[in-house]
Amino acid sequence: METVLQTNIAxxxxxxxxxRDIYDLGDKLIIIATDRISAFDVVMANGIPxxxxxxxxxxRFWFDFLSGxxxxxxxxxxxxxxxxPFCTNADQLAGRSMLVKKAKVLPIECVVRGYLAGSxxxxxxxxxxxxxxxxxxGLRQCEKLxxxxxxxxxxxxxxxxxxxxxxxxSADIIGQESANYVRDKSMDIFKKAxxxxxxxxxxLSDTKFxxxxxxxxxxxxxxxxxxxxxxxxxxxxxxxxRDQESFDKQFVRNYLESINFDKSGPGVELPDDIRQKTSDxxxxxxxxxxxxxxxxEVT
Length: 299
Known about the structure:
Largest sheet: 7 strands, antiparallel
CATH topology of the domain at 105-265: D-amino Acid Aminotransferase, Chain A, domain 1
Oligomer: single chain
Radius of gyration: 19 Å
Shape: globular
């Protein structure tokens, strides 16, 4: 079960996030999605086969899909078009890397929720709220919300946890005009993506977007609507009132919950059967969303 846990390009030092290796080229970046996996903001000790390729190709699909609606950072994912020495490292980078515009990333995550799941369900059971927003009484686990809600969060450094904040707090951090823009655009994108996913028999439960500024313009950055940033459920198996089968890393989260994983870290070794089943779920999600057969060999 071969995985790429980090990239090594001779003479160039990357910064390494939870999942991505990022190489700074000045006004551009090369972002590589490794096969590392994080859950509860903790990076596990081993990875998920093909995960980085799947994440990159799903993001590429959505950037193309949304190109008429929003500006984004993607320049190309053709490794042969990358500058030296990256263009000669296709063995590490093919299928899992993007050359993108370098943006000043806004220091909030823009979370949109369409269903009552995850930490939102935990909070709702205690207080009838999600991220401080009051919801109607009597909603069930994973039930569709009466309307979409926008629940921003602070961006956590590796090893720490995201913190939910109010919309007012997000406006205090990035300014009212910018907060209005990213909220409205995030909601609009979610609606369009959700409608498309439903046409493919897939429910988009929730997702998080990241935004950055280039030449004074706010653009969509990072990954978009991938299994690492979203919950996707097969519509034909959906039933409110319980956990859902999913195409995302909820499978890993559920496993970690079953072993009473210490969420303060460090990450643990995932068993091979969990890794394989998770990889299969990622592939199933890719094929369901894009309508394309996943190619495990990338050239």
